[in-house]
Amino acid sequence: MVNGKSLDPTWAWEPYEPSAETPWDTGAAAHLMRRAGFGATGAELEELVQRSPADVVTELVEAQESDVFQRQMRSLITASLATGNTERLAAQWIYRMLNTPAPLLEKMTLFWHGHFATSADKVEDAKLMQQQNDLLRSHALGDFSQLALEISRDPAMLLYLDSATNRKAHPNENYAREIMELFCLGEGHYSETDIRELARCFTGWEIKREKFRINRYQHDTGEKSVLGTTGKLGGEDGVSIVVSQDQTARFLVTKLIRFFVMDEPQADDPLVEPLAAQMRQDEMQIGPTVQRILTSNLFFSASVRGRKVRSPVELAVGFLRSLEGSTDAYRLASAVQDLGQGLYRPPSVKGWDGGRTWINSSTLLGRSNLIRRLLDDGKTRFGKASLKEHLASQGADSAKDVGRYLQKILFAVPLPDSALQQITQSKSGRSDKQLRDVVHLLCTIPEFQLS
Amino acid sequence: MSRQLFAILLLSFALAVPRATGESPESADAALYPETTIYYAELTDPPALVSLIFDHPLREKIEQLPQYQMATQTPDYKRFLFGRAMVETQLQMSWREALDTLLAKKVSVAFDAETRSAVAIVRGKDEASMKLFAEKMVAFAELGENADEIRQTEYRGLQAYKIQDVLYAISDDRMVITNKPELGRTVIDCLLDGGPSLNDNERFQSAWKTRKEGELAWSFVDVEAVRQYASDPFETQINNPVLELLVGGIQSALANSPYATSSLSGDQKSLTLNLMTPFEADWIPESRDYFFGPAANGRGAAVPEIDDTLFSLSTYRDFSELWLRAGDLFNADINDGFAQADANLSTLFAGRDFGEDILGSFQSEVVVVATRQDFSETLPRPTLRLPAFAAVFKLKEPEEMTRELRRIFQSLVGFLNVIGAMNGQNQLEMDMDKIGDHAELVTTQFVPESDEEESTEAGVIFNFSPSVGFSGERFVVASTAELARLLVEAKSSEAASLVDNTRGSLNARVLQQVLADNREQLIAQNMLEDGNSREEAEAVIELVLQVMGYFDGMTMRLTPAEDMLEASFQVQVAP
User: CA-to-CA distance for B78 and B74, rounded, in angstroms?
Assistant: First the structure.
């Protein structure tokens, strides 16, 4: 159901063909880049519309970080880990999001960070947190079965879930519960017995001196029965059984639709099932599933534009990337944390609730202040220049032109004429300060919160 | 920050601002400032200072740097050049010529306590030049956003201008600039009629006599008046143990001293800032005997000579006395902290009273040394490469205390290993070594995990191998075994440094090497902090390293002489 109407799943997942009603224009391209990345500049949007949407999405899905970029990021990570400070880690991730040549890969890494939520507040080990982050990135668009198996042996995850030890005499049920409830199946698709049995599969799995190991003497070698499969199952078998459930693909597709298409309402089974079936057919490959979503009629339909609330990271990184911005990554990481999205610090094992929960009277004011701080921060540059110079290079050197330009690159829904007129009339100057005021005012209106 | 500390820092800053010949019995400019002036500074020969800055060989070197050349291509620099060209066109002279004309004779500034306002007198080449500058200042202001805030008026036949809150007037070759009209009027009245002035202040007269030949700039602070106007900011407790150690004695001196002066001298090889204030040992209360020692005769120790010393500090501080007199020096909160620390440290030091028995076993002369560590042959190699550092003490009773301190260090290592094991950290492995008959070392090193033995990106702890060394009365506590070894074997420097209470020096060449060792870290930091690209960050760090290479080092001294307390800071330029 969208806007009170039932959706035809067949139509919804059919590849999008541009039409007079839903043209492939800069608005559609901006929508794609906001959802599948962190926004795009005006020049990038003009370039994107010269190609077909399918080609653009394929490029997004297949994009890889260059060797040079990876070396630079490795250097930032090494420097961040040298002091063991997780705040530095958050700053380098912000830097990566701002500069990555593979935005969808980074967006999906952020998605999995919220899905397999693990917080540095509890793990208290920057190296392990980054190790997990690297793991999420390496499988972000790959094989979910492999990702689930590796995350099940990830030291940061097991420490976070108090599952660093798991002895046969006292099986630790924490991870068994979370992999079924939060990572793969969702509530109501397993029993307490399944949890106990799965926990037995994981006995002997330990974290010792920051590394995963299997203590064969503590593994329960007896017969177990998990979700209808019986045998002398080990941890790998347990993960495989859970991932191979039909529900797993449904659960993941539902989350992916929410992440990429719309916060509300939650996709119903008829809408989810065709994509879930395809995912199972693709042996749980994530990339093709995401590609189907991003090339679908539903994704490009007018009904889902502006149907998501920007997360703090999307808001700040999107604002800067769209304006070719660079800034102090430490301050930015701290600011998004203040707005509720601390990188490497999700609030609980459930990750961020997202959607409307990002917005309240306090965070709304905080979001406005964040944009103001970014605009006024001496370290913030736009296209290596001042805001005025950057906007002028884009043909926007008056308040009115700035309104039009920002509408194109930053706004998911058309701005009310009255608001645009009021802002551009009240701020008619052309100095850098006046243009910053215009940009700030535009970014304070409610529509800016929507993606 | 406490009020009195703020006052000390403010005073230091104020003194740090401004050549007096020492021939004139009184200052010509001071004759124009009111008696209530509490701060006065002058550049007697501004062209010499301008020449020192602009004609220094360093300038040419910097201008030849590729990074400087790149900076001159930026829009900001081009805007600056455009603005400068506009000024040159308006004045019909080059900017350097304009500076030499405007600052041809002398510049002085003063702060008047009564009107709480500031005034400056700039003596240029001649009246015509100064009038030209005054008119052009108005012309430029008219181009700005506050053109409607420009006013012209007249006082006693002199044309005066007001641009926003700044007033200025021309009299002969002088331009008088102030932020309050009443002070401006007082100065002009003095200029035209004479009258009571700062020269009548006895403290200023005494200070004026302390000037030396060759000084580029000189300044004076009427400390006695500051104490009156600011309700004696030098009387209360500092309440910060580290700051107390750094400036406690100076605060006591300023609480009694009538005035303080600063002077700046320099040539193409070095630049020196001297701060001086009258000083009497009796002014230091008993509670701060730890700072200058009895009768203010405490002197720092000779520094052991070792290669690649990055930094050394030799000082006289009786830590035991400070610890035991904490009750007189700090407030209740700080003393609670001392009591808690005393209990914990006494436990750690096997029941020995920390203040009396441990700190009391050391003489009051202490040396702190930091050196660069060379990791080229060392594995595991830490990502962040820190200098090694050490403190060198003299033991009062070497024979007894060597045994005691060795045992305490062994206990401490055991304790750290227990704590480290609980937190999954690397363990310390201990070793002992005799060097001839006179010296011994107790060294430790962190044991790497099997998979990090060959690491070149190891953790920060691999910068450390905490060790102690004993050689006669010398006791060394070092962050690394290598430094402990070097220090127990090192000869001490000449006793020339023993006139100073505190003497510190920084070697810029070694600092450059330490920074270069951490180049990757610095680049990463710059990228994250300034949002720069890798290439931009590399350029910034290369510039920092290059510029660091233009300096030899820096020294600071704190010297209580018979009747003056002198602090000096000197920067040396590489040949």
Answer: 6
Name the packing angle between helices A26-36 and A286-294 (round to 10°). 150
The string of pLDDT tens digits covering residues B242-275 is: 999 999 999 999 999 999 999 999 888 999 999 9
The answer, yes or no, to whether the previous bond of B380 is cis (omega within 30 of 0) is: yes
Interface check B156 vs A, CB under 8 A: no
B537: closest chain A residue by CA? A72
A328 chain-B contacts, CB cut-off 8 A: 528-531
- The answer to whether the beta carbons of residues B279 and B561 sit under 8 Å apart is yes
What pLDDT band is residue A1 in, cutting at 50, 70 and 90?
low
Distance from CA of A325 to the nearest CA of B (A): 9
Distance CA B415, CA B418 (A): 5
Q: Give the nearest chain A residue to B529 (CA atoms).
A: A328
* Short-list B536, B531, B524, B384, CA closest to A77: B524
Contact partners, residue B145, CB within 8 Å, separation at least 6: none
Q: Distance between CA B179 and CA B184 in Å, rounded?
A: 8
Report the predicted TM-score, pTM, of the whole model to 2 decimal places. Answer: 0.84
Judged by DSSP in three states, A288 sits in helix
Tell me whether residue B437 is exposed, middle or buried, using C-beta atoms within 10 angstroms of its C-beta: 0 to 12, 13 to 18, 19 or more: exposed
Please tell me the distance from the alpha carbon of residue B419 to that of residue A81, in angstroms, as a whole number. Answer: 22
The two tokens of residue A140 are 């972000």
Where does A180-311 have alpha helices with state H?
192-201, 235-243, 246-260, 269-281, 286-294, 297-300
CB burial of residue B561 (10 Å; 0-12, 13-18, 19+)? exposed
ipTM, two decimals: 0.92
Q: Could you say which of A83, A95, A380 has the minimum Cβ distance to residue B527?
A: A95
Q: How many CB pairs under 8 A join A and B?
A: 69
> How far apart are alpha carbons B158 and B176 in whole angstroms?
11
Q: Do A76 and B527 touch (CB under 8 A)?
A: yes
B384, B523, B531 ranked by CB distance to A379: nearest: B531
| Pick from A361, A355, A438: nearest CA to A400 | A438
Residue pair B120/B107 in contact by the 8 Å Cβ criterion: yes
